[in-house]
């Protein structure tokens, strides 16, 4: 490929918690954001192409961490042409602004995991024309609580007692393709297996669980750092036992109530637009265990340690000289990241606002989109022999009307989230860029910094504040324009 440097000028860049009118230099040779000073003064390079964005918003590419299928392909179903159809999904999905994703496999029999997981591992090439980059698989099940199964088939759910049970399900050699797992920590011996996932750089997410608040805290202490689709398929909030939702109440800082949705940006009168949501100057960082860098440049949280020294430093451990070592309480874990489905079906607007207000820096928007996404409305067969009715973005089981996932785009989730929570454009976009990148330990994704991958979304915003996708860039190349 011939080296090509593109200068995007007159765009509002999403950087440092604000929208700033500035330029962005990207290279299709390296696929990264580059420094204009280094390019010009270091090597005498000038842009091959200059594009005037005329005040449009430039965001990092969207990251989708819960997508069950697309355009008729179910990631958890055996398909003779799976590899080819998955490649087609990636080429099509990027047109929605999703530049990276973790394809989700819902609860299945072991044979399905062992057949499909090798195709869902991390992308090894950096070719823009291949479409959305795969960051590894998300296995949602089968180690779920049958009382909170949602639409997961109860007959395939399992309990894990030993690590051998995990390997027997997914396949020992397939675990390297798994980026994160959703499982119920109260089932079987799962809570004691969490450190083994973490030590293998597999993120553990609490989900489809009937865990009490204490059980959820125990999972966080063991190394869990994420909650799958908060509120859905879990123990309801109670004033004496808040359940998994109570983990968000551990946030040491109390954010101010989000304001109303902001007016659309004005590129001429306001070169720098800060987020209208007043956030703490130093927002809490979810699960602040030390991270180690991997060979691929990403980082993951290692197995948590509960040393006496860290316990003594805990602000909640005010001890007298006579306190015995055995009575030192465990440190209170930091609140986890958490997924929210802002489709207006899974969660009401006030519910979204409550969760976001409790822990804004941990909110991750997901679609939980099903394979029917992109298909016409109608009745379709589901993997358990039942039928699903698709009507717009609403998917329900035909026999009882139970919610069966969504068929919404991630950008629609962002627009809904901004409108319903009043979080503002910056924080709405952050929930599909920087925050999921931090959850996954992707240091080269989710930010518009020099050295980060040049994965971008260029957006318009109308008078009502609604965002519309205009361009998608992958590795420094424009792969979609509307």
Automatic annotation (TrEMBL):
Span of the signal peptide: none
One Pfam entry name: Amidohydro_3
Enzyme Commission number(s) from the entry: 3.5.1.25
Domain called Amidohydrolase: residue spans: 428-479
SUPFAM superfamilies: Composite domain of metallo-dependent hydrolases, Metallo-dependent hydrolases
Keywords: Hydrolase
Top-level EC class as recorded in UniProt: hydrolase
Protein name: N-acetyl-glucosamine-6-phosphate deacetylase
Native source species: Knufia fluminis
């Amino acid at each position: 490929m011939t080296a090509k440097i593109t200068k995007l000028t007159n765009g509002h860049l999403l950087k440092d918690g604000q929208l700033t009118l500035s330029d962005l230099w990207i290279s299709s040779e390296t696929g990264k954001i580059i420094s204009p000073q280094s390019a010009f003064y270091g090597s005498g390079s000038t842009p091959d192409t200059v594009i005037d964005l005329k005040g449009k918003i430039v965001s990092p590419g969207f990251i989708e961490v819960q997508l069950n299928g697309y355009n008729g392909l179910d990631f958890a179903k055996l398909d003779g042409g799976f590899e080819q159809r998955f490649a087609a999904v990636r080429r099509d999905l990027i047109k929605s602004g999703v530049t990276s994703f973790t394809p989700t496999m819902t609860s299945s029999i072991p044979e399905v995991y062992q057949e499909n997981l090798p195709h869902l591992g991390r992308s090894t090439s950096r070719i823009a024309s291949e479409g959305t980059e795969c960051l590894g698989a998300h296995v949602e099940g089968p180690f779920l609580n049958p009382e909170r199964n949602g639409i997961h088939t109860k007959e395939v759910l399992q309990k894990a007692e030993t690590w051998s049970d995990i390997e027997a399900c997914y396949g020992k050699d397939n675990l390297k393709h798994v980026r994160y797992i959703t499982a119920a920590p109260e089932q079987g011996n799962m809570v004691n297996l969490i450190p083994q996932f973490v030590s293998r750089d597999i993120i553990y997410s609490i989900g489809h669980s009937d865990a009490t608040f204490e059980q959820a805290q125990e999972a966080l202490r063991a190394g869990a750092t994420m909650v799958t689709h908060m509120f859905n398929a879990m123990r309801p909030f109670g004033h004496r036992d808040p359940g998994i939702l109570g983990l968000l109440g551990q946030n040491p800082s109390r954010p101010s109530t989000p304001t109303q949705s902001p007016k659309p940006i004005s590129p001429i009168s306001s070169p720098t637009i800060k987020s209208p949501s007043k956030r703490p100057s130093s927002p809490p960082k979810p699960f602040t265990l030390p991270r180690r860098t991997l060979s691929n440049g990403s980082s993951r949280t290692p197995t948590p340690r509960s040393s006496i020294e860290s316990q003594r430093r805990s602000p909640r451990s005010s001890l007298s000289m006579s306190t015995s070592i055995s009575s030192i309480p465990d440190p209170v874990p930091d609140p986890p990241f958490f997924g929210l489905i802002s489709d207006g079906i899974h969660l009401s607007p006030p519910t979204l606002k409550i969760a976001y207000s409790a822990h804004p820096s941990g909110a991750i928007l997901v679609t939980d989109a099903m394979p029917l996404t992109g298909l016409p409305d109608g009745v379709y067969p589901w993997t358990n022999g039942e039928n699903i009715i698709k009507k717009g973005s609403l998917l329900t089981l035909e026999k009882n009307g139970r919610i069966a996932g969504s068929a919404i785009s991630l950008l629609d989730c962002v627009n809904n989230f901004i409108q319903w929570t009043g979080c503002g454009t910056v924080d709405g976009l952050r929930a599909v860029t920087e925050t999921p990148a931090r959850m996954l330990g992707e240091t080269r994704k989710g930010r518009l910094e020099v050295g980060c991958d040049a994965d971008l979304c260029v957006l318009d915003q109308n008078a009502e504040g609604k965002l519309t996708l205009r361009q998608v860039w992958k590795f420094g190349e424009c792969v979609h324009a509307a």
